[in-house]
């Protein structure tokens, strides 16, 4: 790694400290604005809990302290990398997140690779065939997918591939009770991953297709493309060797921004397909007012998004060496 790039990475990592602190403070204050807490939920589940018992629960969770004091306690725990205990489940928040984080990361990585890969290819093909029936079919298909709600698309994929053709499992991350290992286990997870990853990724395929088409058409108008054609290079070489690299910059920018959107979208997709990731955990934590668990998930998610944006900034230098990190 060059010294310039290394210095850039160090500076960005130092900048993460106030950014993550600001995100943690904002999450804390926003969640505190919501009515109710875990003590109310636990008392409600018991059915016969008295007001005194509810207050005792609230004191044991530290929810009776003034807001400023709760915030100081929360930040103090974060500085010690301690996310606290789940009020409802009674286990460390870090352990709960560690159990679910890998499933969400796998789903997000496959979805974003699918979205960028397919979107870039379709965008380049549409730009090269501008004005033809191929361009029309790709553009109209992208518009239809973009306008289709994700939950409806997921349900239709289940009906088509799980119920009608019986080709893919409709939910879960692996076959229950199969006790698989090695390649057989990876293959089983991959089969369960196809439908949720397609549901999460197809919406972004439409976005990247349209963005890539527009970027390619803009690059085609530049002088160096005219020069490449004047040298007698084929249209395929001009498109995939000269134009593609320059047209990828806006796609990479958008991909970095949409990591956060993917995390939000995974809540819906994981719920529809029973995928055991962070999205399901967020959903349960919201319903149960499990403040510590919710704050822990938001904190870890914010770090994932910030690191993803750092990787995107580094990719700029790879795609266009003229970009220097100053």
Give the topology, please.
Blueprint: H1 3-33, H2 38-46, H3 51-61, H4 67-79, H5 93-128, H6 133-147, H7 150-164, H8 182-220, H9 223-230, H10 235-273, H11 278-287, H12 291-319
Helix pairs in contact: 1-12, 2-3, 5-6, 5-8, 5-10, 5-12, 6-8, 7-8, 7-10, 8-10, 9-10, 10-11, 10-12, 11-12
Description:
The chain is mostly helical and 326 residues long. Helix content is 78%, strand content 0%. It is built from twelve helices and no strands. Helix 6 (133-147) crosses helix 8 and helix 8 (182-220) packs across helix 10. It is globular and about 85 Å long. The mean pLDDT is 80.
Strand content: under 5%
Total of DSSP H or I helical runs spanning 4+ residues: 12
Number of strands: 0
Class inferred from helices and paired strands: mainly alpha
Q: Summed up, what is this model?
A:
This protein is mainly alpha-helical and 326 residues long. It has helices at 3-33, 38-46, 51-61, 67-79, 93-128, 133-147, 150-164, 182-220, 223-230, 235-273, 278-287, 291-319.
Key structural traits:
single chain, 326 residues, mainly alpha, 12 helices, 78% helix
């Amino acid at each position: 790694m060059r010294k310039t790039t290394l210095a850039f990475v160090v500076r960005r990592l130092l900048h993460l400290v106030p950014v993550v602190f600001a995100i943690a403070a904002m999450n804390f204050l926003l969640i505190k604005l919501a009515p109710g807490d875990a003590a109310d939920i636990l008392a409600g589940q018991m059915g016969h809990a008295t007001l005194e018992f509810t207050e005792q629960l609230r004191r044991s969770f530290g929810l009776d302290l003034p807001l400023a004091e709760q915030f100081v306690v929360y930040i103090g725990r974060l500085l010690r990398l301690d996310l606290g205990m789940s009020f409802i489940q009674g286990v460390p928040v870090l352990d709960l997140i560690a159990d679910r984080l890998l499933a969400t990361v796998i789903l997000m990585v496959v979805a974003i690779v699918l979205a960028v890969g397919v979107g870039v290819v379709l965008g380049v093909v549409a730009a090269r065939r501008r004005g033809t029936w191929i361009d029309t079919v790709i553009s109209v298909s992208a518009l239809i997918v973009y306008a289709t709600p994700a939950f409806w698309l997921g349900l239709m994929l289940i009906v088509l591939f799980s119920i009608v053709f019986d080709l893919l499992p409709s939910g879960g991350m692996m076959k229950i009770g199969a006790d698989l290992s090695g390649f057989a286990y990876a293959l089983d997870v991959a089969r369960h991953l196809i439908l949720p990853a397609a549901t999460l990724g197809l919406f972004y395929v439409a976005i990247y297709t349209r963005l890539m088409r527009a970027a390619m058409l803009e690059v085609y108008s530049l002088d160096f493309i005219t020069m490449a054609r004047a040298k007698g290079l084929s249209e395929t070489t001009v498109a995939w060797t000269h134009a593609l690299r320059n047209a990828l910059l806006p796609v990479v920018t958008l991909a970095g921004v949409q990591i956060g959107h993917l995390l939000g979208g995974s809540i819906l997709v994981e719920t529809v397909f029973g995928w055991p990731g962070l999205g399901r955990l967020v959903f349960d934590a919201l319903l149960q007012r499990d403040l510590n668990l919710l704050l822990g998930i938001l904190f870890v998610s914010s770090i994932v998004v910030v690191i993803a944006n750092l990787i995107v900034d580094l990719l700029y230098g790879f795609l266009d060496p003229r970009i220097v990190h100053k």
